[in-house]
Structures are given as structure tokens and as C-alpha cells.
Design goal:
Elements: E1 14-18, H1 36-43, E2 50-54, H2 61-72, E3 75-80, H3 88-99, E4 105-110, H4 118-129, E5 136-141, H5 149-154, E6 158-161, H6 163-166, H7 170-179, H8 186-196, H9 200-211, H10 216-222, H11 228-237, H12 244-253, E7 259-260, H13 261-268, H14 273-282, E8 287-289, E9 296-299, H15 301-314, H16 318-332, H17 336-345, H18 349-365, H19 369-376, H20 381-386, H21 388-400, H22 404-420, H23 429-440, H24 445-458, H25 464-479, H26 483-496, H27 502-518, H28 522-538, H29 548-560, H30 564-578, H31 586-602, H32 606-621, H33 627-642, H34 655-661, H35 670-677, H36 681-694, H37 700-709
Length: 719
């Protein structure tokens, strides 16, 4: 078989053929294992006259073509453009002599990204469309060639393998590492695959790096884009080939996880970023497209890490400035997570604090308190204490977590700092700090109500501070006996916090449910408690200790309505959350415990009621002006006392139950019985449920019948 002529090619170009017995064409890089799946796809694509392989450096394009040539059986002729461009006319003439009139041939044009003359691609397009049956042109390029790929796809004349196709699979990566003498555990291989994203050169370089170190596990944990072997390769194969403006662009945008035209313009403080991103994407500079429209990209993980290391090495003072601009852009566009992350990366404590305290309630209200705490944990104790906004954010976070001690600590810290450096004006962090101080209620509920009213007057309409102030005002009014004012404040608090602070809304609704229970409107109370619990669970707040009150109130409402299973469920949840409250707000913890006692009594759980009552009593003593709370406690104690006692024939009845029992044979309603006995209707119902249980009755008439049979009504006459 005649070798392909090279007479028409300019000096420096190598134009080689290979048949089944011929010499191997040039291959690189050594060390990459074969990928049979890709070779099989290439072998099955004989009907497409043009084969296009486009991927960045290190994806094994040349090696893959060599493996294809080794098992295909056709003639393979090679043009390596590494030495320079080629004249289109001479290329056409050479290809025609090589392909036409010969046995089926694959013409490989390697390093096609080095072509600078558009006419060359025009010539290759025309050649591909006129290839004889069984012959193909295969182009390997790092960048997108100037070919009419769209029309070639529509005409079914092209077969493509791109970056995603040529990334190594997990099994291929494992084989490559094994060939290099590196064997990783399954989870370690997963880690390496995440970092390299299957980039063959990255995996091979990782093998070299790991093999050179004594402890593979430790080396793997440190392996990143700034590893010397990776950084050297990227500098040689990618950065050295970039224009200066492209290198600067990539270096300075490396601080971003996602790259878009508007964002990069803002970070670089100049225009033209969208065009630059498009050009870099076409050149395959290890940019990964995030959408089909080509508007958003990200760096390959190793490349991004290497660029960030280069930025710190070459221009360390610029990085904080770039992060600060990114933070501002993200905040303006509503991406608070990214805005906070970049503010933290910029080392700007004031801006970080401003973002965290202004949006703390929103994060907490939508199940993000752990994220908020994670950001705050990045600061030292001194930094938190000396930046008022950070201290307020810390206090707010700890309050939601039910940690009263820590909340008080940070409230005290911000109070001391503001005393030395006032923020100078209403509606600032001063108001938030004062409101947090008011919530502790060290000066009583009446003062908490006054402080909350002041906060409402100076806070902006619809703000998180204002809705929290309404909650505190409503609680203060309710527990000091001003039900009408409490209802107005709580209604407003529930309305204003619906979007930005669902946890505040849930607490407002639970407090309103307690108000309705005081008014004996149990239907309204049940509706409100269900809304509160639904809000908690819908926003991912069910593990917050602060919502123990919501579940306690829900348990009480269910128990009163005879929904025993639901009541027990909510009682268990409330009990679990309440035990996690650490020296919390006295009024909140007392309300929760009293509700737990009442719910336990309604479910005839005397032991459970007693376990919560002692703590409730101690807490109520700390709030002398909580008249309603004291009344609840007095009535609850009376109910608990009524639930203990004895009667004849071994049947245990309390004195209070006996008083109610004598009323059951009458035609008096439960409210009328309560009036006769000078107790609440709720107390009467509690005693009746206990009587039904003890007498094994399911109705009033059955209870009377069983009591008469037991001799309990002998000698008793209705009052």
C-alpha cells in the first residue's frame, strides 16, 4: 500500500499514514489508560464524514485517536499542526491525493486549534462533505473550530466527542491510578473524582503527586489545584497560551464560584466580560458552561484553585477588593448566601455583621439557623463582641436555639459596645439590641411591653424588628391581663412576620390560641394552634427549641378536643424541645411548662403533669406581674390536686371529682356546674374526663349509672 505523499505540505508538518501493519502515529501523553467505550463509539460512527474531538488540554484526544487507529483496520493519515498553520489550497491537494482513490482512510488533523486562517476550516468543511464512502476526517482541537457545526449536525455529517464525553469514568480513573501503583478506598476515589471531575490529566497528575508522598491519605486530603505538579502543568498548557488580558480576567474572576457577564463586570469594575467569557469558553480554558445559553460558567475545580493561589501570590492586596465587590453585587441581586460568603472572604467584619444581623430573622424563620451559626462561628469571641451587628446576630441566633445564657451574653456584649460607640440614630442595631434586652424581661412584663412599643414606633414598617416587637408587646399585654390590646398586637405581629419571620408568626399564633382558650373558644384555639404548627413544620423549624410552646399549645388543643393520638404526638415533641431550653426567657418557658401540665392532665398523665409543674412554679415566681400566668398556674395546681384522692370500694376519686360527680345526675350543663362550684368550665371538663376514665364510662349517663352501682351516689344529692 502506497504511503501518503507529503510533497504538498509545508516544511515542519508531519503527514503520516498507518495501516494494520504500519508504524504508530505520534501519541501523547503517556500514562493514560485506554478507554474502550470511546473507541467503540468512534468505530461505530463510520457514516459521519467528519469526526470532531474538542476538549481542553489533558483530555487525551491524541491518545484516544491513536487507540482508535490501533483497532479500526482502516488507513490512518496524520496531520499534526503543532508546527504551525497550513495553506488551505495545499491542504486540499494533499488530502485529495491521500484519500480519494485509496482504500477507506481516516485523515486525522491534530492540534486544529492552532489553525489561524479561517479558509483552512472552510476547506476542511468542503472536504468533509465530499469524502468518499468509508473515509473520514477527524479533527482534534482544544478550542471550538471555525466550522459550521450547526449545519453539519442538521445534515448528520458530524460525530462529536467533547469534554464531558472524554472525562474519565470512575472505573477508568481507578484503573489509571492502579496502573500508577495507587489504590484508593471507594470514598477516597469518590473524593478525587469530585476534585478532578474526571479530567484525565488531572487524575494522572494526582497519581504522580500521591505516589511521591509517604502517606497517601494525608496527601489526598491536601491535593488541590495549587499542588506543584498540577500548577506547573496548568501554567505550561493553559496559562502560557493565553493573551495577557485573558490571563488577568481569569486570575481576578477566580474568586467567583459562578461567572456571568454582569457579575464579572461588577467585580472587575469594567465591561466586556460576557464577550471575554464567550471567547474563553470557545478556547476551552477549563471553563464549564452552566447553561445552554452560554451565560453562566464556572472554573474546573483544580483550575480555580490554581488561579486563586496565583492571585494570592501575584496580587494579594486585590483579593479582598474583588470579594467586596462580589458581595455588593450579590446582595443587590438577592443572593444573600453568596453576599455573606464573599463579605467573609473579604475579611470585612463590619459588612459581614451588617448582612448577618439584618437578615438573621429571615434565615432563622426559614430553617437556616445552622447556616447563620456556621457563619458566626468563623469569627473569634473578640470580633463578635466588638462589632455590634455581629453580637446582635449572635444573640438572635442563640435565642432561636433556646440558649438563654448565650443570648444574654451577646446582648450584654452589644450593650457595652454601643455604650462606648453609639450607632447614632433610631431604626439601627441599637433598637434590635434593646428589643433583645427587653425579651429577657428582667424588669418585668410591663417594661417589656413598653420597650416593645418603643421599638415599634422607631422601626420601619414590615421590618423583622417590628414584628418581633409586636410579639413581645402581645405577650406582655396578655400575661398582665390586657387581652384586647394583646390580640391587636399579636394579630399585627402574625401578619407582618408571615414572609420574613415565620418563627415569629408561629409564636404569635400560638399566643393567640392561648387567648382563645382563656375565652373558652376552643374551636378558634384549635384553628390557630394548627396554623402555628403547620407554619413551623412547613418552614423547617420543627427542631428549634423555641417552638416548644407551639407544640405544647397544639397538644393542649388536641387533648381538649379528644384527639388523643395527635395530642400525645405533639406532647412528646413539645417535651423533647422544652428540655433543650437553657435558662431561657422566663415568660416563654413558664408558658410552655404550664401548657405541658395542662395537656398532660387532659390526657390523664399525672406523672407527666407533676414533672413539669415544679419548674413552672419556680419560673412564674420570677415574673411577679404575670397575673394571667399565675392564674393559669393556680388553676392547673387545682386540677392536679383534684386528680389525686380516694373513694370507697378501692375506686380512687378526688374531693373535687366527687363534687363534680354529684352534679352529673342533674340537667346542669358543664358551664352551669362550673358556676355552681366557682371553677372554670375547663376544670369541670378535666374532672369529667377523669371520672369517665375511672368509672369506665364513655358518656355522662353511663358515668352516673356506674357511679350509682358502685354506691358512690348514695346519700349524695345535687346542690
Amino acid at each position: 500500500m502506497e504511503p501518503a505523499s507529503t510533497a504538498a505540505l509545508p516544511a515542519g508538518h508531519r503527514f503520516r499514514r498507518r495501516d494494520t501493519a504500519g508504524r504508530r502515529p505520534p501519541t501523547r501523553p503517556r500514562g493514560l489508560v485506554g478507554r474502550k467505550r470511546l473507541v467503540r463509539r468512534l468505530s461505530e460512527a463510520r457514516d459521519a464524514p467528519l469526526v470532531l474531538l474538542v476538549a481542553p488540554a489533558g483530555y487525551g484526544k491524541t491518545t484516544l485517536l491513536s487507540e482508535w487507529a490501533a483497532c479500526d483496520g482502516r488507513r490512518f493519515a496524520w496531520i499534526d499542526l503543532a508546527a504551525g498553520d497550513i495553506d488551505p489550497d495545499r491542504l486540499v491537494a494533499a488530502v485529495k491525493r491521500t484519500v480519494h482513490g485509496q482504500a477507506p482512510t481516516v485523515l486525522v488533523v491534530d492540534n486544529a486549534h492552532l489553525v489561524s486562517a479561517p479558509k483552512t476550516f472552510t476547506a476542511l468543511d468542503e472536504l468533509a462533505r465530499s469524502m468518499p464512502a468509508g473515509s473520514q476526517i477527524a479533527l482534534a482541537s482544544r478550542s471550538e473550530p471555525e466550522l459550521p457545526v450547526g449545519s453539519l449536525r442538521a445534515d448528520r455529517m458530524i460525530f462529536e466527542l467533547r469534554t464531558g464525553d472524554m472525562a474519565m469514568t470512575r472505573s477508568e480513573a481507578g484503573a489509571l491510578l492502579a496502573a500508577a501503583g495507587i489504590r484508593l478506598a471507594s470514598d477516597e476515589l469518590d473524593t478525587l473524582m469530585r476534585r478532578t471531575e474526571g479530567w484525565p490529566a488531572g487524575l494522572y497528575l494526582a497519581a504522580l503527586s500521591l505516589r511521591a508522598q509517604p502517606n497517601v491519605d494525608s496527601a489526598l486530603s491536601r491535593f488541590a489545584g495549587d499542588d506543584q505538579v498540577v500548577a506547573d502543568y496548568l501554567r505550561d498548557e493553559l496559562l502560557a497560551r493565553l493573551a495577557p488580558d485573558q490571563f488577568t480576567f481569569l486570575l481576578r474572576t477566580s474568586v467567583l464560584d459562578t461567572l456571568s457577564g454582569p457579575l464579572c463586570d461588577a467585580v472587575l469594575d469594567k465591561g466586556g466580560s460576557a464577550r471575554m467569557l464567550g471567547a474563553l469558553a470557545r478556547s476551552n480554558a477549563l471553563l464549564v458552561s452552566l447553561d445552554r445559553g452560554g451565560t453562566a460558567y464556572r472554573h474546573h475545580p483544580l483550575f480555580g484553585e490554581m488561579l486563586r493561589a496565583e492571585l494570592r501570590r501575584l496580587d494579594p492586596k486585590r483579593e479582598p477588593q474583588l470579594h467586596a465587590r462580589a458581595s455588593t453585587w450579590y446582595e443587590d441581586h438577592g443572593d444573600l448566601d453568596s453576599a455573606i460568603e464573599h463579605a467573609l472572604a473579604a475579611g470585612d467584619h463590619e459588612q459581614s455583621g451588617e448582612l448577618l444581623w439584618r437578615h438573621a430573622s429571615s434565615y432563622i424563620g426559614h430553617g437556616g439557623n445552622e447556616a447563620l451559626r456556621g457563619w458566626l462561628d468563623q469569627f473569634s469571641e473578640d470580633q463578635l463582641a466588638h462589632v455590634p451587628t455581629l453580637a446582635v446576630a449572635a444573640a438572635t441566633s442563640r435565642l432561636a436555639a433556646g440558649d438563654g445564657d448565650q443570648a444574654r451574653h451577646w446582648v450584654s456584649a452589644v450593650t457595652r459596645t454601643l455604650a462606648r460607640h453609639p450607632s447614632g440614630g433610631p431604626c439601627t442595631v441599637d433598637v434590635a439590641a434593646q428589643l433583645l434586652q427587653a425579651a429577657v424581661a428582667d424588669d418585668g412584663l410591663a417594661q417589656m411591653g413598653r420597650d416593645a412599643a418603643h421599638a415599634c414606633s422607631v422601626s420601619p414598617e414590615g421590618g423583622d424588628t417590628r414584628s418581633f416587637a409586636h410579639l413581645l408587646a402581645g405577650v406582655a399585654h396578655h400575661l398582665t391581663g390586657e387581652g384586647q390590646r394583646a390580640r391587636a398586637a399579636l394579630d399585627e405581629g402574625a401578619r407582618s412576620s408571615a414572609v420574613t419571620a415565620p418563627h415569629v408568626q408561629a409564636l404569635c399564633l400560638a399566643q393567640l390560641a392561648l387567648l382563645e382558650m382563656d375565652e373558652e373558644d376552643w374551636d378558634a384555639a384549635t384553628t390557630l394552634s394548627e396554623r402555628a404548627r403547620s407554619r413551623v413544620e412547613g418552614c423547617g423549624l420543627a427542631d428549634y427549641p423555641i417552638v416548644a410552646l407551639v407544640y405544647a399549645v397544639s397538644a393542649l388543643a388536641h387533648a381538649h378536643g379528644g384527639r388523643v393520638e395527635q395530642a400525645h404526638r405533639d406532647l412528646r415533641t413539645a417535651s423533647r424541645l422544652a428540655t433543650r431550653l437553657v435558662d431561657f426567657l422566663p415568660w416563654h418557658e413558664a408558658e410552655t411548662r404550664v401548657a405541658l401540665v395542662r395537656a398532660s392532665l387532659s390526657l390523664s398523665d399525672i406523672t407527666g403533669a407533676r414533672s413539669w409543674l415544679a419548674g413552672a412554679t419556680r419560673l412564674v415566681r420570677r415574673i411577679p406581674d404575670a397575673t394571667v400566668l399565675r392564674a393559669w398556674l393556680t388553676e392547673t395546681c387545682s386540677q392536679l390536686e383534684a386528680a389525686t384522692g380516694s373513694a370507697g370500694d378501692g375506686l380512687t376519686l378526688t374531693a373535687a371529682e366527687l363534687r363534680v360527680l354529684r352534679m352529673l345526675p342533674t340537667h346542669l350543663s358543664f358551664p352551669a356546674i362550673a358556676k355552681q362550684l366557682f371553677v372554670s368550665t375547663n376544670t369541670v371538663k378535666t374532672h369529667v374526663r377523669a371520672l369517665y376514665r375511672k368509672l369506665d364510662a364513655s358518656s355522662r349517663s353511663e358515668a352516673v349509672s356506674h357511679a350509682a352501682a358502685a354506691g358512690l351516689l348514695d346519700g349524695l344529692r345535687a346542690a
